[in-house]
Amino acid sequence: QQDFVKIDTTNILFICGGAFVGLDSIVKKRMGKFSIGFGADVQGARDLSLGEILKDVQPEDLIKYGLIPEFVGRIPVVATLEELDEDDLVKILREPKNALVKQFQKLFAMDDVDLHFTDGAIRAIAQKATKRKTGARGLRAILEQAMLNVMYELPSREGVKECVISEDVILNKSEPILLYEPQAKAS
To answer: How far is CA 39 from CA 1, 25, 63, in A?
Structure first.
């Protein structure tokens, strides 16, 4: 048995965010981009980007996608965003106050280790996310996969002062470069 609570939605703004994978196909079909058989384009129209297609989303497309009409009726404005490109992902990795790279650097700083990423490593992370079509949400998984071993081993290693993550670490699962403190000479 479920209890239902009646809520007045008059002053509630619904914001739906997400990738909505497959919505572009519904919009294309409605726009008449496909003809009979195997999605052929007999009109010869220029290829539209995903962003250009989704700019034409209509309420009926959202209903065909699976949202209930009562909910779609509460969405007065539909705004779409362009897909993130590689440069956008690089900025996301580096620039925000709580950027992923900065989070990992703080984590390593707890063990008194300076963590550095080469420009190639940052670019490789962004390229992997682009290839996987995971966007910004895939960046953490890529970083953690590359960093897992060194994060586990670092606390047990003595004298490590710096850890350098190169493109090779990201792409080929190579070991990061660890730089150690110079040992004091015994007199």
So the answer is: 46, 10, 22
Task: State the amino acid at position 139 in one-letter form.
Answer: L
CB 30 within 8 A of CB 58: yes
Parse the chain into domains and list their residue ranges. Answer: 1-83, 86-180
Q: What are the tens digits of pLDDT across the range 49-103?
A: 888 889 999 999 999 999 999 889 888 888 888 889 999 999 999 999 999 999 9
What fold is seen in the domain 86-180?
A: Helicase, Ruva Protein; domain 3 (1.10.8)
| Contact in structure between 147 and 117 (CB atoms under 8 Å) | no
- Element counts in the chain: helices (H) and strands (E): 9, 3
Measured CA to CA, the distance from residue 23 to residue 40 in angstroms comes to 18
Are 92 and 99 spatial neighbours (Cβ–Cβ below 8 Å)? yes
First to last CA, the chain: 80
Q: What's the pLDDT at 186?
A: 52
pTM of the entire predicted model = 0.74
Instruction: Assign 9 to helix, strand or coil.
Output: coil
- The pLDDT-based confidence of 44 (bands split at 50, 70, 90) is very low
